[in-house]
Write a structure and sequence with these properties.
mainly alpha, flat
């Protein structure tokens, strides 16, 4: 049995190993987040800093080290902001100087953005000037944070900077943000104001109007009239695309918007794209409803759009889709999908007996059988163009396929 000296030695060794493992774990975490930069200036600043600043910096560094190489969690971000929101400009500058490796690590990039936002709340022009210098000059998130904070604090001052000396991404963000504010405050006159004083703000105005003016026929009429006044066809297209996103889960309202747009006689060059986007976006997961909509003459959907809608249904529910095609005399749809899917299956490298696509393959079998029943000559002519082994496999009976 080991004596007390041996036990003491083992205990000491165990404690030493535990301490070393703990140290290495902590060291890895600190290395992952990066060690605070140390210079003569940072040492002097730390010695001379008030106790409250030291404590705040220490808490922020601990949170940074906890994240390591990972993106901070929402809870960690809130904890960081609870500290940063109390910083002065001097605190912001001092902590920015201590963040190592600039923006390379997610947690450091997140803190840089947060610190610049706080700086812009206090002295936006100085924050913007700093953000336009290395190592932040190419970081769009930093510029975005400063621009948004500046507009929130002093919209007129932000716009003056953008109009007189601003450039690049920061200028675009400020003008866009100002346009959003104008559209929220005065939707009736915001577009005219932007056109007259800041063409760059037009995008923000239109984005906000599009987001909010879609809930009723009257509001949509106003929006369509606004869009019709634009000379920029690209801007019209972007606004209509954005409008589609506002109709999530609102298929009836989206279809009403299509009809209203057609009735208004506005934007004829954009109607087809808008109609297609509405159908594709608002009827995801409802392929039968989508097909029935595009088959309605009022939708003005072309043959390609109708076939694609049918193809989507066959992917999800091939038997139901084929039954619909038979009932509605759309055997040509079945034939076209057989050609499309068999070609895609061959091109993918599929070989007879490959079970990785068994569900897809069975749907194709059913379609071939149905096509042969209604249009035997056309179906057989197409099948003869396939490699013999693939043709034999796809036309085999289901019982034969099961026994393979």
């Amino acid at each position: 049995m080991p004596g007390w000296k041996t036990n003491l030695t083992l205990a000491a060794a165990t404690l030493g190993i535990a301490a070393w493992v703990g140290y290495r774990s902590e060291r890895r975490t600190m290395d992952a987040a990066g060690k605070p930069a140390t210079t003569i200036r940072s040492v002097v600043r730390h010695v001379m800093a008030p106790k409250s600043r030291k404590e705040s910096f220490d808490r922020l560094h601990r949170l940074r080290h906890t994240s390591g190489r990972s993106q901070p969690t929402p809870r960690e971000m809130q904890q960081c902001w609870d500290i940063v929101r109390g910083f002065t400009v001097e605190d912001v500058q001092a902590y920015l100087a201590e963040i190592p490796d600039g923006l390379r690590r997610p947690v450091n990039g997140a803190l840089v953005t947060m610190l610049f936002y706080r700086w812009a709340q206090l002295d936006p022009e100085a924050a913007m000037n700093a953000a336009r210098q290395p190592p932040y000059a190419e970081d769009r998130e930093t510029h975005y944070a400063v621009a948004v904070a500046w507009v929130d604090r002093d919209i007129d001052g932000a716009m003056r900077w953008a109009m007189n000396g601003g450039s690049g991404f920061a200028k675009d963000i400020i003008e866009n943000s100002v346009g959003q504010v104008w559209a929220t405050q005065d939707p009736e006159n915001a577009l005219a104001r932007a056109k007259a004083g800041s063409p760059g703000a037009v995008k923000g105005v239109l984005a906000t109007l599009t987001e909010h003016l879609h809930g009723s026929k009257e509001s949509r009429r106003k929006l369509f009239e606004t869009l019709a006044s634009l000379e920029d066809s690209g801007m019209k297209r972007r606004c209509l695309s954005q409008l589609v996103w506002c109709f999530e889960g609102k298929g009836e309202e989206a279809r009403a918007a299509v009809a209203e747009l057609e009735e208004s006689g506005l934007l004829p060059d954009q109607l087809d794209a808008f109609r297609r986007d509405v159908v594709n976006y608002t009827m995801q997961g409802r392929p039968q409803e989508r097909l029935e909509w595009v088959m309605n003459p009022e939708s003005n959907a072309d043959a390609g759009m109708q076939l694609n809608a049918y193809a989507t249904w066959t992917w999800h529910e091939p038997d139901q889709a084929m039954k619909w095609a038979e009932e509605h005399g759309k055997i040509d749809f079945i034939g076209e999908i057989v050609k499309r899917q068999s070609f895609e299956q061959i091109r993918s490298g599929w070989q007879p007996g490959d079970k990785t696509r068994i569900t897809w393959e069975e749907g194709l079998r059913h379609q071939i059988s149905t096509w042969q029943k209604h249009q035997p000559e056309a179906a057989d002519a197409w099948l003869q163009s396939l490699p013999a082994d693939i043709r034999s496999h796809l036309t085999a009976s289901h019982d034969d396929a099961t026994n393979e």
